[in-house]
Amino acid sequence: MNANGGIPFLDLVTPHRELEAELVSVFRAALDTAGFVGGPMVEGFEREFAAFCDAAHCVGVASGTDALRFALIAAGVKPGDTVVTVPNTFIATTEAISQVGARFDFVDVDEHTYTMDPEKLRFYLEAECTRDVGMNRPRSRRTGGPVTAVVPVHLYGQTADMDPILDLASRYNLSVIEDACQAHGAEYFSMKEHRWRKAGSMGQAAAFSFYPGKNLGACGEAGAVTTNDEALAREVRMLRDHGQSRKYHHAVEGYNGRLDAIQAGILRIKLQHLTHWNEQRSWSAKRYDELFAPMAGSVTIPYQPAWSKPVYHLYVIHTANRDELQKYLTEAGIGTGIHYPIPVHLQAAYAELGWKRGDFPVSEDAADQLLSLPMFPGLRAEDQRRVVEAVAEFASVRSTG
What we know:
2 domains, 12 helices, Aspartate Aminotransferase, domain 2, single chain, Aspartate Aminotransferase, domain 1, alpha/beta
């Protein structure tokens, strides 16, 4: 509960107060050493986050968008290529593809998980592409370009169903770059490998964002690429630093996309708490599940497949009259969010590409009916009860009104 007696959607103040002394020490260390770019703080975080993700390499960069862009370039995506992703995501996913010079195309999401539907990806590759025999790859009928990569988006803290996606990618000679910007610590059980896999360790590479509201958030902008491919990691390290293989030796034309040392130091401290914070989110999610059980007919809670260990970056319910419910909760002092109110294919920025309502109905339904409820480490049980009671009150008013 905040100072005004309301329940915030996200509490970023409390964890920073609790860690204040440690976080301030990072800034002091940077002042004492003038180590503001690169150096031990960045290298230490990269080493520790790679281990957390069960990945061989981590390369810190300036944002999640940079991470995805650099990963695509390093994986060999070229201007004119087509990259397949989903419309139920933040626009940064498609921005990164466009900024590589590639075209994006979409497949719809699964109606239960809201992540990439592997069956729709299969249909796309079989029915909506021709076969480029020379390149041994599909060629998109929509874009005309060869399909060279797929970007499954791990959403709301849950991974996409990766086994069938990776199988299709192998069959069609595609790179898989995980958009793991909402999935720090999420796990997927691979039936093929008979083991749990961490988000960020399954594709050729993965992109993470450390925007302040993420499960692992910086005090500003930050991101990282994880990969088990040493050559890809080396390429990303050059791309983030003006293409330098060593100082003033530019192997390629790159970008200014480095991770600030202070942000790396802050992330390194917070990483020590991430597993516990994720456990707290999971406990809160289970409590919501139990509280919402009597409302099964009017509210659909997040679906957790047997293959998933989500970290609940968001707790998202599906309900009719979503906008009216959000207004009701706001008036009751309860913070909420909508992720996302307009699917990417219907954004004004892409109007000239010709997509229309009805093209991706599951993503469109998600945009109309999903509501994100308060979710953060330290969320109190009594506040969750108040949230659910308010949702029940709204449902009762609607049914009798």
